[in-house]
Amino acid sequence: MQGMKTKKSRVGRQDTTAAGLSGLILVAAWILGSGITLRADVAIGVFPIRAEHEVQAGQTKTDGITVDNDSAEIIHMRVTVADWYLTRDGSPTFVKKGKSPEFSMSEWFVVNPAEFVVPPHGHQIIRYTFTVPKDTPDGGYHTAIMIESVPNIAPGQDVHAAYLNARVGAIIYDRVGKTTPQGTITAQQVVIDQKNSGQVGVQITLKNSGSSHFRFKGESKIIDKQGKVIETLPINDSVVLPQSERDIFVPVKGILPTDGFTIVSSLDIGLKELLEAETRVEPNPSSLPDVKK
Description:
By secondary structure, this protein is an all-beta fold. It folds into two domains: 10-18 and 180-287, Sandwich (Immunoglobulin-like); 44-176, Sandwich (Immunoglobulin-like). Helix content is 0%, strand content 50%. Strands 3, 5, 6, 8, 10 and 11 form a six-stranded mixed β-sheet that branches. Strands 1-18-17-14-15 form a five-stranded antiparallel β-sheet, with no helix packed on it. It is globular.
């Protein structure tokens, strides 16, 4: 934050437990042409929305995903396998298979069926099978199974009408062989998120220098000059892909002290010890924004 000075972070460790899990869902409207909307109540559910497997090089495994049609209409579905990656702020970006090959396992996957129809309030199981190549190095790999609705266009129906299309991505992770999380907190500072109405928060930069993804969760504490914790900020469960960095934004709800304070953040990445960073923020009253409670 302009006008504020922070001291270099200190990293320490203490006992902890493994991190939890969370999922990703995408729903998008695709327009095929111009005209009135013919379908506006597409509703599908996918379970599980995320799966993770512990496998060995050369192993073949089969698992399944259940797709529920929660609407009163027949839904025509199509299934594809896609690559994906995360931006620094954690936003997922889905691309065609082969477009983001680093740590991708999309080429290992076969899905069945690739296209199907689900009756109203019915369900369909999608089976996926993958074989890990024998020469695959130990590490973490990922792909996405994309399930999307396809317009049911009857003979003679206007193909220039607009249709609502539901699209859901089920995330699959594989850990091949033995992997250990390798994470480091490389920076910590107070910032203003201009994309979020000027929200003030703590930004933590977390680097994954290993060959496997890991999940994290934790908290940041704002401590005044007298050593009193004035606010504890939860850091929600999320993931860092291998050989990448994440900027984790933790919103501040209260008012930051104008006479200086310390930020102490702790992250559980699945090791026996926590990653910790401590940053002292020097006083500069003219530059510290007031945050509405």
